[in-house]
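# step 3/5: fold
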Amino acid sequence: MAEQVRLLSGGNPQIAKGDGDEPVQAYISAMPGWKSDIGRRLDELIERVVPGVRKAVRWNSPWYGVEGQGWFGSTHVFKNHVKLTFLNGAALSPEPPGSGKDPDSRWVNIVEGEFDEEQLAEWVRQAAALPGWDGF
């Protein structure tokens, strides 16, 4: 399936919106090069830290949430990194390093060869315990 997926700007896979694990796995399979391994590792980490995690693909990005609590995070492929965004990241300790216009969101850019599993797991654990975004 990965060879049938169009890659958008920066190599982000164009995946139709959908709910559940299947569209997320299609996205991960279509991530180019080393980024697919990062996507797989993130997905496995999130499943391990948040049993029963909700998954969906929207806006060509996998989303992760907790039933009845909303969405806590998403990933997106860029040319030189995979971005893991925490929608409630300003409430995490320590705060993930990336920030922008949204006062609540924070993110971490994961580059090839750098995967701090312990810190990522802690951020995922904290983010999943907080009220999330229920925008879709």
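# step 4/5: annotate
The two ends are 26 Å apart (CA to CA).
# step 5/5: archive (pending)
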